[in-house]
Amino acid sequence: MWDNHQALRSLANFLLLASLSMLVYAGGVWFVHSPWFPVKKIQIDGALKKVTPEQLKYIAEHELSGTFFTLDIDNTRAAFGKLPWVREAQVRRRWPDTLEIVVAEHEAMARWGENGLISTSGVWFDAASDAPLPVFFGPAGSEQEMSAMLGQLRQALAPSGLKPVVLNLSARRAWRVELDNGVKLELGRSDVLMRTERFAGHWKDTLAGLGYRIDTVDMRYPNGFAARMPDYKAPPAHIGATR
User: Fold this and answer.
1) How many domains would you assign to the chain?
2) 161, 120 in Cβ contact below 8 A?
3) Are the C-beta atoms of residues 170 and 187 closer than 8 Å to each other?
4) Other CB atoms closer than 10 Å to residue 77's CB: what's the count?
5) Across the strands, what pairs with 167?
6) Last residue of a domain, one of 53, 84, 105
7) Is 51:106 a contact under the CB 8 Å cutoff?
8) Buried residues in 158-195 as b, exposed as e (16+ CB within 10 A)
């Protein structure tokens, strides 16, 4: 081999190419990790109503690390996603020293009992609000179902002028709804919307004119309903005179 000049030339070229490749690789690693390329600007966009500048500043100062090239985009996105009202955070680099972050917030539709909120997309998230929101009580995993039912109940109750404020879904999938006037509806497990519409059709012309406070209306009867009125007292039975 040592007498084969062609083979020696090929080996020398290979070694030279390998050396150059290693130098390029080492230079690239140094370049990427060089402190000469820090992230100097963080630009945050989005229609923010609940997320505060202080929260965003805290994340930027305590959760983000690395240079413009080494900063982990997925970890950065997850760090901003930890904030209670953040639904989604999009992160991208902009040469030479800027990190652009677009934040989208949750929009609360209801409360989940005493623990967290439900967004307009039917997703539970851990946040607090002082807004007057409907309240859900239901089995774990029923958030989407209850969110859809809220919209359907609002539509079904529209003729009555009443609104649902508390939705209860039992483990047996039976519905109980409290309205904004304090009346509770027992709607059962089937024909829930039909029963609600039947109540709405009778409210103004029949139930609202009874003159007594109505606590509960049971709509589970096939062709009617029963109203519970705690203040109602039946008139005394008439006893005819005897001679």
Assistant:
1) 2
2) no
3) no
4) 16
5) 136, 177
6) 105
7) no
8) eebebebbbbbbeeeeebbbbbeeebbbbbbeeebeeb
Q: Looking at residue 180, what DSSP letter applies?
A: T
Same domain, 123 and 89: no
pLDDT digits (tens, 9 = 90+) for 30-40: 444 445 567 78
Q: Among 74, 105, 136, give the residue marking a domain's end.
A: 105
Nearest to 133 by CA among 148, 150, 111, 155: 111
One domain for residues 146 and 196: yes
Whole domain around residue 84: which residue ranges?
41-105
**Cβ–Cβ under 8 Å, residues 110 and 147:** yes
Question: pLDDT below 50 — which residues of the chain?
Answer: 23-34, 241-243
Sheet order of strands, 86-94 included: 41-45, 98-105, 86-94
Whole-prediction pTM value?
A: 0.78
- Is-contact 118 143, C-beta < 8 A? yes
> In the 8-state DSSP scheme, what is residue 147?
H
How many CB atoms are closer than 10 A to CB 146?
Answer: 22
Q: What tokens appear for 141 in the block?
A: 């995993």
